Task: inverse folding
């Protein structure tokens, strides 16, 4: 079988608008060739992010009706707390309205100026939250994790020597926490092995440094461990998750990914003192400790989503749907990051469009063409999003990779949608010499990709 069939059937449908090429040309021109500026209801297939875009199950929707909206002590909070404790094993469970608030609360309470935080690769919001506290975010992923062609099965692994070197260099008193992102989003949604998790945990223990997961896509990581690591084939996803978290002291979580909900997150940790300080701050900025910026019904949906995401039939479909999209592209020679990660396929725009230099944004050229030709929204992760400026000359320093991410929302699109996406990209690949680059007409001082206006080069 080419595709694993969907392990769900469709009960409610959301019609998609089909626009004409002329309409899309007009829309993208008006949007300044910036895909963030396109109204979502003009998009046929939206692969901008897998975050907050999941379809909830009938069981989760039913749970919403059982929302207890009491200010304090909602019954949904207790269900949520019990579920998180069961899977993650941490004693204190603090709800937040999304992942970055969990990061902000944690770092506000533990980081001081000059501190250093190692991670495999920090996700953008994590890095921004570390740097906001005047600390330094250090990426210690293995070298294989930075090479789009390397087929290492656990490209999200932390390089233990790099981690040790960072602790040696700055001294353990300046390293208040070690993080590990599962799966490693910024490295292509690549998993971390249980062996590596044990090694990171041992280093953390040896130096007396707390060790936390950035757990957004923990279930997808567990599925890769079951599939690829010796000794885990006969374990359930729940058992693998419980073992994984047993090596750590806590986690931050955006439930918008593997929580299978549209909004929500949490912080969980064993340390009572940290939890108390963070809870006090939560009450200041998010709300009382039994809702943390969410409604009771949202907590119920997360509790139910966290159980559903452990279902192996669901995960097999999820991981293989992403993989098969990648394989359809790979078979036709389209350059992608390999092996395919858990939540997204990343097209290597530098090799796709070698005639467009980084200064003319090859990734954005592909993003625009994919929308104009097929109504598909993807996102550039290259010179537009990630470039730095030389402080002396003001010239752009392009990042190492020019990528286009096709992130797949959970339980939303069918395999036929994936085939449509693959065919559109393959068609563009066959006519790739025709694509032209872009120049910037307007850019903000930071995070320019969200609001930039571009102009095609004639
Ligand atoms: C993704 C996102 C969502 C996103 C966030 C910011 C800009 C563009 C897109 C969010 C993550 C993540 C990891 C590993 C923490 C967060 C923040 N990812 N860690 O990939 O991937 O969670 O959005 O709930 O605040 O599109 P949050």
Result:
């Amino acid at each position: 079988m080419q595709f694993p069939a969907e392990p769900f059937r469709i009960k409610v449908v959301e019609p998609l608008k089909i626009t004409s090429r002329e309409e899309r040309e007009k829309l993208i021109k008006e949007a300044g060739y910036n895909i963030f500026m396109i109204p979502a209801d003009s998009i046929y297939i939206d692969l901008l992010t897998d975050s907050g875009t999941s379809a909830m199950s009938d069981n989760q929707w039913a749970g919403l009706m059982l929302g207890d909206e009491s200010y304090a002590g909602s019954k949904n909070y207790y269900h949520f707390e019990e579920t998180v404790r069961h899977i993650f094993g941490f004693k204190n469970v603090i709800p937040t309205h999304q992942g970055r608030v969990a990061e902000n609360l944690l770092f506000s309470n533990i980081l001081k100026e000059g501190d250093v935080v190692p991670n495999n690769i920090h996700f953008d919001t994590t890095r921004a939250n570390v740097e906001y506290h005047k600390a330094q975010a250090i990426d210690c992923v293995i070298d294989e994790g930075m090479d789009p062609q390397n087929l290492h099965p656990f490209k999200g692994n932390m390089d233990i020597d790099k981690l040790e070197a960072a602790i040696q260099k700055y001294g353990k008193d300046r390293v208040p926490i070690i993080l590990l992102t599962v799966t490693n989003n910024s490295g292509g949604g690549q998993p971390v092995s249980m062996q590596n998790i044990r090694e990171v945990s041992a280093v953390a223990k040896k130096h007396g440094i707390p060790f936390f997961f950035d757990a957004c896509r923990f279930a997808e990581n567990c599925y890769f461990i079951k599939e690829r690591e010796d000794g885990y084939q006969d374990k359930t996803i729940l058992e693998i998750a419980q073992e994984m978290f047993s090596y750590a002291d806590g986690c931050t979580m955006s439930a918008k990914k593997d929580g299978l909900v549209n909004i929500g997150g949490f912080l969980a940790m064993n340390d009572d003192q940290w939890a108390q300080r963070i809870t006090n701050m939560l009450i200041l900025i998010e709300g009382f400790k039994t809702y943390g910026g969410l409604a009771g019904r949202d907590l119920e949906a997360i509790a139910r989503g966290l159980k559903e995401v452990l279902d192996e039939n669901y995960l097999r479909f999820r991981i293989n749907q992403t993989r098969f999209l990648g394989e359809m592209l790979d078979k036709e020679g389209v350059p992608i990051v390999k092996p395919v990660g858990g939540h997204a396929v990343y097209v290597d725009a530098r090799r796709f469009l070698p005639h467009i230099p980084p200064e003319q944004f090859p990734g954005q050229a592909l993003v625009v063409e994919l929308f104009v030709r097929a109504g598909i929204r993807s996102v550039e992760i290259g010179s537009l999003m990630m470039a730095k400026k030389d402080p002396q000359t003001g010239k752009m320093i392009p990042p190492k990779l020019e990528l286009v991410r096709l992130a797949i929302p959970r339980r939303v699109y069918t395999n036929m949608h994936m085939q449509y996406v693959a065919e559109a990209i393959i068609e563009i690949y066959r006519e790739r010499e025709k694509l032209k680059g872009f120049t910037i007409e307007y850019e903000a001082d930071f995070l320019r990709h969200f609001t930039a206006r571009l102009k095609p080069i004639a």
User: Anything to note?
Assistant: The chain has two domains: 21-50+312-456, 58-309. The longest strand covers residues 92-96. The CA atoms of residues 226 and 233 lie 5 Å apart. The domain at 58-309 is CATH 3.40.640.10 (Aspartate Aminotransferase; domain 2).
